[in-house]
Amino acid sequence: MVYQVSPDQGLSLMQSNTMIGTDLTFRVERANYYYGPVLAVKDVFLEVPERKITAFIGPSGCGKSTVLRCFNRLNDLIPGARVEGKISFRGTNIYDSRVDATELRRRVGMVFQKSNPFPKSIYENIAFGARINGYKGNMDDLVERALRGAALWDEVKDKLKASGLSLSGGQQQRLCIARAIAIEPEVLLMDEPCSALDPISTLQIEDLMQELKTNYTIIIVTHNMQQAARVSDMTAFFNAQQNDKGGKQGYLVEYAPTETIFNHPAQQATKDYVSGRFG
Known about the structure:
Radius of gyration: 19 Å
Distance between the termini: 39 Å
Helix content: 25-40%
Number of domains: 1
CATH superfamily: P-loop containing nucleotide triphosphate hydrolases
Structural class: alpha/beta
CATH topology: Rossmann fold
Strand order of the largest sheet: 7-6-3-4-12-11-5-10-9-8
Low-confidence stretches: 1-21
CATH class: Alpha Beta
Number of helices: 10
């Protein structure tokens, strides 16, 4: 899939046999992230590989979630938030004024820190978003496919009319993942998806991520360094420093294959963080 320019519709996602940047999903070039006049994260450069898991790690306040939410322009919803620099999705700058942010968010799904099922049935949690996005196929098949994709079908197939809120915490999070993949995104952004889960549910989500990366590019924010080491292919370490207003300003310290970050980091700050000396 690539962005193509239509004179009437601007940039939209179109089917194409030619892919721009087939090995990369995102490329971030010297990006700065602002909340109003405050520079929250500065000078980020990184490339997110296709169908791999990329982890963002670092102490609280370093900008991990801020950067994550820029990939589907979710920060656009915050008054005063803006981005300088360039973020390309399959070769096209997603902050180009012609890009449809709603269409982008359909292609780049989001799973939040706290599971947030709709107060609807398990079935309707999956079907609702698909209907909103104009799905015309067999809804029963889509619901089953999404639930199977989230490794949840066998646990809920006999109670699809039950409320999504009746599920356990781990099941609710997998329901939210199923809801995200039901609209057929190409990327899944996950912001601390396991922080509220018990160890068994956490391992289930981690196993699921390994299965999902066969079909999706995944970017995960996590405070759990063991989790990053277990599941990710690439790791970006962010840190923070004091800004001139007494707040925190995040910056990217190092970005490399996960094995390198945890075993042979280039920066002393990375080594100190992954070894538990600070953070």
